[in-house]
Amino acid sequence: MRTFHALCIVAALSAPLPALAGTVAVRVVDANGQPVPDAVVAIHPAAGVPAGPIRFPWASEMVQKNIAFNPGTLIVPIGATVAFPNQDKVRHHVYSFSKAAKFELKLFGRDQSRTYTFTTPGTVALGCNIHDAMSGFIRVVDTPFAGKTAAAGDTRVANVTGGRAVLTVWHPRLKAKQNEASFPLNVPASGDIAKRITVTLR
């Protein structure tokens, strides 16, 4: 009986603690209080991010349609292979000279697709060698706690590890080094926290 009790105590002590996580609601506005859509919000908890692959609910896909990149800004996890399907009637030649990824996807036509795997976190600015007006961005992140602001400038990041963290906001027009700014954050062990971030745009 004593042996059984001892085993129960050991099992209880070795059992994983319940995850403590909260939801962070972020609203990004400019200096005039106007919402900033398409800003990428990423949160890095001081305790680190969970082990294992990072997955987001949206597709790792950058479509060329109507002579534009869709979406204009795409968030992908580090190590993601992104598809570049062409839905235009004309050919495209996608490229990037960014530090996070330098590559070319040479001429491909309608209903054709190319892929590229992103292995370095950071911002990848996209262009088309055929259509100079085309521009887009891929934000490669090393945290599962990320989201993009909607038209009202808001996004919600759920199940963020509780405790101290750093919240980073990136936008192509943000007036800061590498177009990003970081802010301290205390994530609740449960429930929601709202954070309003004011940024200066170029």
Overall description:
The longest helix is centred in the N-terminal third of the chain and has 13 residues, at 2-14. This protein is mainly β. The protein has one helix at 2-14; strands at residues 21-29, 40-45, 63-64, 69-70, 73-77, 81-85, 92-98, 101-108, 113-117, 122-128, 135-141, 146-148, 154-161, 163-170, 180-187, 192-198. It folds into 2 domains: 20-51 and 144-202, Immunoglobulin-like (Sandwich); 55-142, Immunoglobulin-like, CATH 2.60.40.420. The strands form 5 sheets. Strands 5-11-10-7-8 form a 5-stranded mixed beta sheet, with no helix packed on it. The chain has a 4-stranded antiparallel beta sheet with strand order 12-2-14-15, with no helix packed on it. The chain has a 3-stranded mixed beta sheet with strand order 13-1-16, with no helix packed on it. Helix content is 6%, strand content 48%. It has 1 helix and 16 strands. Residues 4-18 have low confidence and may be disordered.
